[in-house]
Amino acid sequence: SLDTAEAAIIFNFIAYMFSILLLVYTNCYMGEYLQSEAMNLYRAYSE
């Protein structure tokens, strides 16, 4: 059985991993958005 210290460590680890994954996802999403906006700007100027 888990005592409260082990449960807190597990919860903190899960919360930390979730926040890191959210940070990576947000970074990738914003990079993709920036790339698509740059391509739209390029297409607008090249017409």
UniProtKB/TrEMBL annotation:
Transmembrane segments: 6-25
Keywords on record: Membrane, Transmembrane, Transmembrane helix
Protein origin, superkingdom: Eukaryota
Protein name: Uncharacterized protein
Record organism: Bracon brevicornis
